[in-house]
Amino acid sequence: MSDEQAIGAVIDEMYAMISGPKGPRDWSRQANCFHPDARQIRTWIGEDGRATFRNMSLDDYARDTTPFFAGNDFFEIETGRRIDILGNIAHVWSAYEARASLEDALPERRGINSIQLFRDPADGWRIMTMIWDNEREGVAIAPF
After folding, report:
1. In this predicted structure, what is the pLDDT of residue 116?
2. Under 8 Å between Cβ of 75 and 101
3. What local confidence, expressed as pLDDT, does residue 39 receive?
4. What gap in Å lies between CA 37 and CA 42, rounded to an integer?
């Protein structure tokens, strides 16, 4: 398997892990795509109009999103991907659309995941850091 294919499989697993009908997610699947020391960073615009973020460990992310997934169907679908590799590091730009149903004509939101990976000697490519932001007025996703 090429590096691009292996990285693609990691990204596909990440999307598959969080997407699905309402109900529990199998957080043990994080080991298939994330390094144990990984960080996930959600960004948004606060009520004061300023950019802000939440930096989460894998456990933080699972704990914070479990109530949402328990009560909501959620499907995040990748719509574009660009992979850059240098030695044992890689960066992936991954555009996505989020929907409550796969049949929804329009997404609830669109955004970009900026994903940094490390080629772990024992486990292969694993996500070390993932930061994301959503499209909004004045911030549009350019095709890639």
Report:
1. 98
2. yes
3. 98
4. 17
